[in-house]
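Hi U.,

Before I forget, here's the chain from the pilot set. I'm dumping it here mostly so it's searchable later in email.
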Amino acid sequence: MGWLYMQSLKGHAGPRQYLDAQFTFERPEATSKVLRSALVGMRVYYAAVEQLRIATGEREVWAAICLVRYNPRDPEGYIFGYKDMSESMGPHECECPKSILDLLTPTDAQYARQWRARCLEAAAARRARAAKPSPRAGQVIVFDEPLAFSDGQSFERLEVVANPRSHRSVLFRAPGSSGLYSIPNIKSRTYRLI
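Structure:
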């Protein structure tokens, strides 16, 4: 299915609430209800959707994934768009929170099982990054492999210095140098602090 764009959220507080409502309904043959959902980075919506078949009493909880574009200031007025898919379609996005994955019922769908495995790996990697100590001013950081910078320099060992423009981040300086470097996504790299 393609993208669906609209000019309002039809009274809902935000994209996540709108999408929760889209997957929650009652029909004579079945009911559908969002048990838990998350909007990750305002880009991807994940939900554990429970479906009950009235005639058989069969219960299934599957994952809904929606790519999201939300721009309340869109010049054409199309403030919200989404593209929905299910886990059995093998979506590329795999940042689904573990709390949602834990609600899903077992499945035989190969793509869904592979997607769930990728999401669990990504969740484990996020936990590992979060558990890493953050570099603080005054420390020395030593990387397992040299980092190459855009000025052609390459370093394994850098001093951690306070960022004069932001108390939330630090900068890095080569020992004996006055040049400062920024390293985005520092916790995704392997290092030790001295």
